[in-house]
Amino acid sequence: MLRRICLSTLVALVLVGPASAGTIIVKLTFVPGTLRVRSAAATATAAGPVQVPVTVADGRGSGAGWTLRVAGGRHVTVTSITARCAANSTCTLPRAAEAPSGAVVLRAARDTGMGVMNLVVTLAALPAGSQSAPLVFTAS
């Protein structure tokens, strides 16, 4: 009895399947992400240079580039920046559009700096006798 019910259900499904075929329209929309920056807590001091790990995530999908800035209450000098793609991220590493100056650490040129990148920003020591200053990184 159970075998007959299963067999008749299977036959019904096979016969009804083609009759219900039609056009299925799927609409997809691209929702751009955001530009985010995260850095380890760091302080600039006169004792020596400081290396700060900074993660920049550009999920906007526009390729417009971005500007990484540092605020510390004092003028700081960027001596070097290294960049690599974050684990499990397909990224386009940033290419500097201009040299660092003032509060601008890195200005990523158009069509670069997309995805998630791990940067290491090295800042020179503050002048002798200067008070230490906490560093805050922002991107726009």
What gross morphology would you assign?
A: elongated
- The CATH architecture can be named as Sandwich
Percentage of β-strand residues: 35-45%
Task: Calculate the terminal CA-CA distance, rounded to whole Å.
Answer: 71 Å
Largest sheet, order of strands side by side?
Answer: 1-3-7-5
Q: How many domains comprise the coordinates? A: 1
Helix and strand layout, with pairings?
Elements: H1 2-19, E1 35-39, E2 42-44, E3 50-58, E4 66-71, E5 78-85, E6 104-108, E7 115-123, E8 133-139
Antiparallel strand pairs: 1-3, 2-8, 3-7, 4-6, 4-8, 5-7
Q: How would you sum up this structure in a few lines?
A:
The chain is built from one helix and eight strands; from the N terminus they run H-E-E-E-E-E-E-E-E. It has 140 residues and is mainly beta. The model has no long low-confidence stretch (mean pLDDT 85).
